[in-house]
Amino acid sequence: MSTTPTFDLLIRGGTVIDGTKAPRFDADVGVKDGRIAAVGDLAGASATRTIAAAGLIVAPGFIDAHTHDDQALFAQPDMAFKVSQGVTTVVAGNCGISAAPLKKGMKLPMPLDLLDVPDAERHSTFAGWVAALRARPAATNVAALVGHSTLRAATMESLDREATGEEIAAMQALLVEALEAGAIGLSTGTFYPPAVKASTEEIVEVGRPLAVHGGLYVTHMRDESSKVMEALDETFRIGRALGIPVVVSHHKVQNKPNFGRSTETLAFIRETMKGQQVCLDCYPYTAGSTMIRTDRGMLDGRVLIASSTPHPECAGRDLGDIAAEWGVAESEAARRMQPGTAIYFLMDEPDVQRILAFDETMIGSDGIPTGEKPHPRLWGTFPRVLGHYSREVGLFPLETAVWKMTGLTARNFGLADRGTVTVGQHADLVLFDAATIRDAATYEAPTTPAEGIHAVIVNGGVAWEGGRSTGVRRGQVLKRTPSAAPRGAAA
Ligand code: ZN
Ligand code: CU
Questions:
Q1: Lowest-confidence range among 70-74, 108-112, 436-440?
Q2: What is the pLDDT confidence band of residue 278, given thresholds at 50, 70 and 90?
Q3: What confidence tens digit (pLDDT) does each residue in 76-115 have?
Q4: How far is the CA of 116 from the centre of ligand 2 (A)?
Q5: C-alpha of residue 94 to centroid of ligand 1, in Å
């Protein structure tokens, strides 16, 4: 005779780091119907499945604050590059680029092509994209932004100018459709050609519907180099004009003359937080990665080609070597390799550490999930923060590191019932070894899975275990609940 077990899943004997920055404590965690049903001494309980977690940390599943996984959720539904790191939720649609709404047959300008959306899989509405994902869930949850550059491409004949009143109205209508379908906000990428000509006023006007729908404004700013302070000021002005929270994406100060200026930018962010909601994210590397660019500022340091459509053989090689071999200037070699992606070494380690350690900084990978030689952040970001920056460098305690990738992120994005190990929360969990967790992905071997991650649970299902995907795909499309997001540091 058998009785119904108390839990679907019981994680026994682990040490909980709960995602609130509170000190760790020993506890069992019981999961039932996709939710955390109990946390504490569950010695007498029975379960359909038990995982022994002695010696391991049990933490909330990590939330990747900044991704370009919109299409990867369909193309690589096991999301191994993310769940292998302990990531259970990705925020997609960043840098002005979202997979929807896109017209079929339209040629996508760089960097919209980075998402790699096949023509047949394009959705002309955001609701269509959400429905497709609900019908074919991926291994991780997603919270998605709609991209301003995507809206421009969908509504404007030419992108090399400011939008007209009519075009702005058309973009607003698409934004409203997206927000009603579950988008959590609007992202911009005024650094990139499709949006470079968009004025502050254009963005404010397009963004008008955000406040009533409880949406966020998230931005890859116009400048992260010599004009970074002006770019921050523009971002904050947009947030104030719309009366909504802003997220400064992958905050950095790049190019040598700006090294050290994170002291200036962080002081400005801190001061601004007193009067309005400001959030920021950061990836733990001194190199960035984006489309292949030919402008001098981007080619100032070492450039590593990650992918090239016309020259796939160049992936993994230095631009300098390729240019020398071809007997042309680096900018010319870069032009010949477009479209494609590259890795740019333009940051200084002390700035990266200062921004990571800033108490309100969330962790976001900014990984680009295409090609064979991506930036190692795609596979290594979260274990690198936990292993390298917390354990080895001692930048912050493990509890703080976990908070920066769970509780803080859930709060900032308004992801209700996620981000902490508390009874009633959705059962997104990661079990890892604090002593051994480390990123193994390097610039040379960028797709090597991290070490020290034992199991990853998404909505109560084990998605990653024993170093591989289990094939369980319980990811959900998450909406933003503004009330779940208490006011930031300004409160
Ligand atoms: Zn970006
Ligand atoms: Cu990005």
A1: 108-112
A2: very high
A3: 999 999 999 999 999 999 999 999 999 999 889 999 998 9
A4: 14
A5: 7
* Ligand 2 center to 288 CA (angstroms): 9
Nearest in space to 215 (alpha carbons), one of 99, 91, 119, 107: 91
Helix axes 165-181, 148-155, angle to 10 degrees: 130
d(CA 181, CA 357): 35
Count CB neighbours of 423 within 10 A: 12
Ligand 2 is a single-atom ion; what residues have CB below 5 A from it? 94-95, 366
30 alpha carbon to ligand 1 midpoint, in Å?
38
> What is the DSSP code (8-state) at residue 3?
P
- 176 alpha carbon to ligand 1 midpoint, in Å? 23
E strand or H helix at 152: helix 148-155
Question: Which one of the ligands is nearest to 368 CA?
Answer: 2
Q: Could you tell me which CATH number the domain at 6-59+424-472 has?
A: 2.30.40.10
461 Cα: distance to centroid of ligand 2 (angstroms): 29
Q: Which ligand is nearest to the CA of 195?
A: 1
Q: Quick one: which of 406, 405, 385, 407 has its CA closest to 396?
A: 385
**Which residue in this structure is represented by tokens 């064979």?**
372
- Taken in order 70, 73, 76, 80, the sign of the CA dihedral is positive
- In this structure, how many other beta carbons lie within 10 angstroms of the beta carbon of residue 45? 17
H/E element, 269: helix 262-273
How far does residue 168's CA lie from ligand 2's centre (Å)?
24
Using CA of residue 66, residue 405, residue 286, residue 340, what is the dihedral sign?
negative
Q: How far is the CA of 220 from the centre of ligand 2 (A)?
A: 7
Give the C-alpha distances (Å, rounded to integers) separating 202 from 198, 230, 233, 350, 355.
6, 17, 16, 36, 30
Domain 61-298+340-413 bears CATH identifier 3.40.50.300: no
Residue 484: band (very low, low, confident or very high) from pLDDT cuts 50, 70, 90: low
Q: How far apart are CA 419 and CA 36, in angstroms?
A: 12
Confidence of residue 2 (pLDDT cuts 50, 70, 90): low
Instruction: Compute, in angstroms, the gap from residue 468 CA to the centroid of ligand 2.
Output: 26
Q: DSSP states of 98-117 as a string?
A: -S-S--TTPPPPTTGGGG--
Enter the tokens of residue 418.
């996620």
The pLDDT of residue 485 is above 60: no
Residue 490 has pLDDT above 70, yes or no: no
Residue 170 and residue 70: Cα distance in Å, rounded?
23
**Ligand with the closest atom to the CA of 189:** 1
Ligand of minimum distance to the alpha carbon of 366: 2
Domain residue spans of the chain: 6-59+424-472, 61-298+340-413
Residue 267 CB neighbours (<10 A): 10
Confidence (pTM): 0.97
